[in-house]
Automatic annotation (TrEMBL):
One of its GO terms (biological process) is mRNA export from nucleus. One of its GO terms (molecular function) is mRNA binding. One of its GO terms (cellular component) is THO complex part of transcription export complex. It comes from the Eukaryota. Residues 11-48, 66-163 form the THO complex subunit 2 N-terminal domain. It comes from Rhododendron simsii. InterPro entries: Tho2 (IPR040007), THOC2_N (IPR032302). This is THO complex subunit 2 N-terminal domain-containing protein.
Length: 200
């Protein structure tokens, strides 16, 4: 019943409907002795699925602010497990960004739960940039003193010329190689969420 109530469309969400929904949720929590944290989790899940439903912005303040960061943090940590094979949904990023935008949660409190950590991200960036720079420096490089035999030796591989078509192939491989890494980068995902809720 609670989920059905929460998942009504935004077109029905007038100010009176919002007040009624808040009252009903409070009554359900009290009458059935429901765990407020679990109810809050359900509210956030429904909000994640319907980010345009304005009832949630009236409903969320009845729960403690500190609990929102913890619940969202657990959601992000769930996707960090090795056995989880799917990525964080755009809805979760949008929800988190919207709650930060509305000053319901603090960015620092949620940022602590995201991966990769800053140090790891900088190391990944340095190694990737170094590799890409080495590949770029090889484009069009010609060793006039090299013979066919020299080109076959492993230690002379740095002297091999990479033509433009090979460079384009290397670029495509790099994009493919980094795609899964970027999909798993929760910090970039949250940035996407901020852009989608017009909070830059």
């Amino acid at each position: 019943m609670q989920v059905t109530l929460l998942c009504q469309g935004c077109e029905e969400s007038t100010q009176n409907a919002s007040a009624a929904t808040v009252g009903i949720i409070k009554s359900l929590i009290g009458h059935f002795d429901l765990d407020p944290n679990r109810v809050f989790d359900i509210v956030l899940e429904c909000f994640e699925l319907q980010p345009d439903n304005c009832v949630f912005l009236d409903l969320i303040p009845i729960f403690p602010k500190s609990h929102a960061s913890q619940i969202l943090g657990f959601k992000f940590q769930y996707y960090q497990r090795m056995e989880v094979n799917h990525h964080v949904s755009l809805g979760l990023y949008q929800l988190t960004a919207l709650l930060v935008k509305e000053d319901f949660i603090d960015l620092d409190s949620i940022y602590a739960h995201l991966l990769p950590k800053d140090d790891e991200a900088f190391e990944l960036y340095k190694s990737f940039s170094s590799k890409r720079l080495d590949e770029a420096n090889k484009i069009g490089k010609i060793n006039l003193a090299a013979t066919g035999k020299d080109l076959m030796e492993d230690e002379k591989q740095g002297d091999v010329t990479i033509d433009l078509f090979t460079a384009i192939d290397l670029e495509s491989e790099a994009v493919t190689e980094r795609a899964s890494e970027l999909e798993n980068n929760q910090t970039l995902g949250l940035l996407t969420g901020f852009l989608s809720v017009n909070d830059w």
